[in-house]
């Protein structure tokens, strides 16, 4: 699915998403685990932040200078109301050019919507946008091979793609990151989260 079509569908459920997820603990323990690996607490960005500001709130509490990015205009507008102090980008992650290096980048249940051919360039780009010691936490489909699936959520059809866990791990390694944590956190669902850390050429 074209990312603009994904955006139009999330526009439709942005208010519902905020109401349902504003106080949700979903993914927060995993984010806290990622934060523990950080040394610098400079800039952080939540990719596909949605409207609830859940990760943004936690990152602010830990002292990061926080930014949010989402392709859905409605998601961004609602998130801005909750966090007027935060910089938001209404952008497709496929085309966004990181303006700086980050101490932490999160992409929780967002980049799994990208077309399959965008998964590798996106992963490379986000690894490259980490400062030395910076941490990247993201979720992906947990199959061993690459593939695409479709599903329905809140009356909207969405597409998902994955390169397979081993390929994501290879890409982060090629981009001077090491894997600090990989987990099937909803097993037997094929939902995986990975924590990677920029280590430079040698640790
Ligand atoms: C399932 S929601 C997750 C929201 C948030 N991460 C959370 O956990 O509450 C997926 C989000 O990813 C965003 N998204 C999907 N494709 C995107 C893209 N190509 N660029 C930026 N954001 C995207 C959607 O607009 C939506 O807000």
Return residue spans where pLDDT drops below 50 for at least 5 consecutive residues. none
User: In the CATH hierarchy, what is the superfamily?
Assistant: Vaccinia Virus protein VP39
Describe the biggest sheet?
7 strands, mixed
Can you write the helix and strand succession as a string? Answer: HHEHEHEEHEEEHEE
Helix-strand makeup class: alpha/beta
The overall pLDDT average reads: 96
Radius of gyration: 16 Å
**Bound ligand species:** S-adenosylmethionine
The fraction of residues in strands falls at: 25-35%
Give an account of the 3D structure.
The protein has a single domain, classed as Rossmann fold (3-Layer(aba) Sandwich). Helices cover 34% and strands 31% of the residues. It has helices at residues 3-21, 28-37, 54-61, 73-82, 116-128, 165-174; strands at residues 43-47, 65-70, 87-90, 102-107, 130-141, 147-153, 156-162, 177-184, 191-198. Strand 1, helix 3 (54-61) and strand 2 form a beta-alpha-beta unit. Helix 1 (3-21) packs parallel to helix 4 (73-82) and helix 2 runs parallel beside helix 3. The protein is globular and about 40 Å long. The protein starts with a helix and ends in a 5-residue tail after the last strand. Bound molecules: S-adenosylmethionine. S-adenosylmethionine binds at residues 3, 6-7, 10, 21, 27, 48-50, 52, 54, 69-72, 75, 92-94, 108-110, 113-114.
